[in-house]
From TrEMBL:
SUPFAM superfamilies: Cryptochrome/photolyase FAD-binding domain (SSF48173), Cryptochrome/photolyase, N-terminal domain (SSF52425). Residues 157-179 are annotated as: Disordered. Residues 167-177 have a biased composition (Basic and acidic residues). Its cofactor is FAD. This is Deoxyribodipyrimidine photolyase. InterPro entries: Crypto/Photolyase_FAD-like_sf, Crypto/Photolyase_N_sf, Cryptochr/Photolyase_FAD-bd, Cryptochrome/DNA_photolyase_1, DNA_photolyase_N, Rossmann-like_a/b/a_fold. It comes from Sinomonas atrocyanea. Keywords: FAD, Flavoprotein, Lyase. One of its GO terms (molecular function) is DNA binding. The record marks W309, W391, W414 as: Electron transfer via tryptophanyl radical. PROSITE patterns: PHR_CRY_ALPHA_BETA. GO terms for biological process: response to light stimulus. FAD binds at Y228, T240, S241, R242, L243, S244, F275, D404, A405, D406.
Length: 484
């Protein structure tokens, strides 16, 4: 039977079970749908759109080598996928699973329309080591604490990656190629801010696998994975893998990463275990999203609904918006006027808070679409704890600017920093950006790399009093009556 494989966040030809299954069925056509219309699907941010454009070019080229044409369509998945399946005369339609709420609803809709038309539809596990519904506590719920979660998951067997499929011999049905990638206007124009992104990244499968290979290195004790426990918190070193966008877009799979790193267990026992647990946090974030589809809009710990974070358009957004802490009678300790809050939010976004580690991070983010994890934590903490601005606004900014922004890891980590999330940092542990810089950027090399005017009059003064704002945040937190 002719087959259709529908690509989503799995833009690779190796270790791709849906692609393999389609090719095993018969002459295969591939499809990517730019779906900004299915209800609830969050439109991609600017940096992500840039990445996607190049990722699709890369995918089309590697599929071309397998003789598989890539059709591009824009629209609602439940309309587009069945239509292309019909044009390809496909008796079989395959895809790899997604785990967000709106994505799952869209996939269920596609499945039923495809099946109603008498075609077979099958989905596969490709982007998580284990399915969220297979990793449950004894009570049958998702894990809320990372350590037992990871103990359970890392103790299991993870399948080995699948090899690249062989080129198909029989040409599939000709399907009009659909949209032109250029017409989707994914690339920024007027102004084109993508220059530094292109210097920092090569989107695509080969580039992702090359990074992974470099990171694990040979089986010796001086590789990046071996040094990872010592270097991963130093933002001016290339101490982390930088695999996040490649995992986000599925250019590399967690199975490939897990096994590559596990193979270094002998020469780098600590490094491979610490690194694997970071993959575990990725897995945990996605499992959390599966169990809490509203992760990007609702505090997981609902007592934080009364925290008086600043959020504009209070009550107008319809959704659970704004400083409803005020409505719930929390003290107005860190309640900001709109003007003041907008000024602070703007300073944070532009990297002009007067705290060099935060400012360097925000500028790195703006230029390259990525920020070091340590700096993400410090920067997020300043926004939600010292500036009193809602984590959702920080999450939205990251969503728009990160090349690795995904619907699980981004809100999960914002809630982790804010204290409202799963197994979150205790609220009272408020990062001090000065102390963090002294510890993790002791020579100031990272700060100087991103802030040319550091040490001159042009560099702004600190935008908030750390001591006072910390005390106000703790007071507001205490008034929630939340457990520490
Ligand atoms: P490495 O240290 O090499 O880690 C390897 C892989 O493990 C990463 O590529 C990533 O897939 C995974 N990983 C590591 N840490 C985490 C974590 N805390 N949560 C989830 N996965 C993790 N990561 C994203 O992939 N997308 C996001 O949108 C995102 N938003 C974040 C927002 C905030 C406020 C914070 C504090 C962290 C966020 N992270 C996010 C997690 C983390 O900062 C990045 O995954 C990491 O910096 C990526 O760099 P790396 O690939 O070199 O990481």
């Amino acid at each position: 039977t002719p087959a259709l494989v529908w690509f989503r966040d799995d833009l690779r030809v190796r270790d791709n079970p849906a692609l393999r299954a389609a090719l095993a069925h018969g002459p295969t056509v591939a499809l990517y749908v730019l779906d900004e219309e299915s209800p609830g699907i969050r439109p991609l941010g600017g940096a992500a759109r840039w990445w996607l454009h190049h990722a699709l070019e890369d995918l089309a080229a590697s599929l071309g080598q397998l003789g598989v044409p890539l059709v591009l369509r824009r629209g609602t998945a439940a309309a587009v996928v069945p239509d292309v399946a019909a044009k390809a005369h496909a008796g079989y339609v395959a895809w790899n699973r997604r785990y967000g709420g709106p994505e799952r609803r869209a996939d269920t809709a596609v499945k039923s329309v495809v099946r109603r038309a008498g075609r077979e539809a099958e989905s596969f596990q490709a982007s998580l080591l284990h399915e969220p519904w297979d990793v449950l506590t004894q009570q049958g719920t998702g894990y809320k604490v990372f350590t037992p979660f990871w103990k359970e998951v890392s103790g299991r067997d993870h399948r080995h990656p699948l090899p690249v499929p062989r080129p198909q011999r029989e040409a599939p049905e000709h399907v009009p190629s659909g949209d032109d990638l250029g017409a989707w206007a994914l690339l920024p124009r007027d102004p084109d801010w993508s220059g530094p992104l292109a210097e920092a990244w090569t989107p695509g499968e080969e580039a992702g696998l090359a990074l992974l290979k470099d990171f694990v290195g040979p089986d010796t004790a001086d590789t990046a994975v071996a040094l990872y426990p010592d270097e991963r918190d130093l933002p001016d070193r290339a101490g982390t893998s930088r695999l996040s966008p490649y995992l986000r877009w599925g250019h590399v799979s967690p199975f490939q990463v897990w096994h590559a790193v596990a193979d270094r267990r002998r020469a780098a026992p600590e490094g491979s275990a610490v690194f694997a647990s970071e993959l575990g946090w990725r897995e945990f974030a996605w499992h959390t999203l599966y169990h809490h589809a509203d992760l990007a809009s609702e505090n997981l710990r609902r007592e934080f609904d009364a925290y008086p974070w600043w959020l504009p358009h209070a009550g107008r957004g319809g959704a659970h918006d704004a400083a409803h802490g005020r409505a719930h009678g929390a003290p107005p300790a860190v309640v900001l006027g709109d003007r003041e809050a907008n000024r602070l939010l703007d300073a944070w976004r532009r990297g002009r808070t007067g705290f060099p580690m935060v400012d360097a991070g925000q500028r790195e983010l703006w230029a390259t679409g990525w920020m070091h994890n340590r700096v993400r934590m410090v920067s997020a903490s300043l926004l939600v704890k010292n500036l009193g601005i809602h984590w959702r606004l920080g999450e939205r900014w990251f969503w728009d600017t990160l090349v690795d922004a995904d619907p699980a890891s981004n809100p999960f980590n914002w809630q982790w920093v804010a204290g409202s999330g799963a197994d979150a940092a205790p609220f009272f542990r408020i990062f001090n950006p000065r102390t963090q810089a002294a510890k993790f950027d002791p020579q100031g090399a990272y700060a100087r790399a991103w802030i040319p005017e550091l040490g001159t009059d042009e560099y702004p003064d600190e935008c908030v009093d750390l001591g006072e704002s910390r005390a106000e945040a703790l007071e507001a937190y205490r008034s929630l009556g939340a457990a520490p």
